[in-house]
Amino acid sequence: MAKTLELLFLTEGGKSATLSVADPIEPVDVEIVKTAMDAVISSNVFTTASGSFISAKGARVVERNVSEYEVN
């Protein structure tokens, strides 16, 4: 099972943007995530078609299950 921490941001244009972090440390420490998101916003490193990140919207861990089958 692959897990990803998704950091959700609001942009200047009022749209959502997501940054994904593979294999997050669990349990997720919400205070550390919030501090990291604030650092991303203040550094202004990322920009999208709808502008820079202006606020943290949320965070979530997404778990993905993949089942592969041989068909040959």
UniProtKB/TrEMBL annotation:
Classification via Pfam families: DUF2922
InterPro entries from the UniProt entry: DUF2922
Top-rank lineage group of the source organism: Bacteria
Protein name: DUF2922 domain-containing protein
Organism name: Peribacillus loiseleuriae
